[in-house]
Specification:
The chain contains 2 helices and no strands. The protein is an all-alpha fold. Helix 1 runs antiparallel to helix 2. The two termini are about 25 Å apart.
Length: about 55
């Protein structure tokens, strides 16, 4: 869980730097991709944990 929250924090920081600093738009793109990947990873872990044991 701590890795998930850390990656969201990194994505937010990269997004802010990419949006504010001129010429660093690629950081904004990296932040969006990282955030989307983090959400998919969290969703996958949530579904994996919610399945009943057989």
């Amino acid at each position: 869980m701590s890795v998930f929250l850390f990656l969201i924090l990194v994505a937010i920081v990269l997004g802010l730097i990419g949006a504010v600093a001129g010429g660093l738009g690629y950081l904004l793109v990296i932040a969006v991709v990282l955030f989307a990947a983090d959400l998919v990873f969290g969703w996958w872990r949530l579904l994996r944990k919610s399945r009943p044991a057989r």
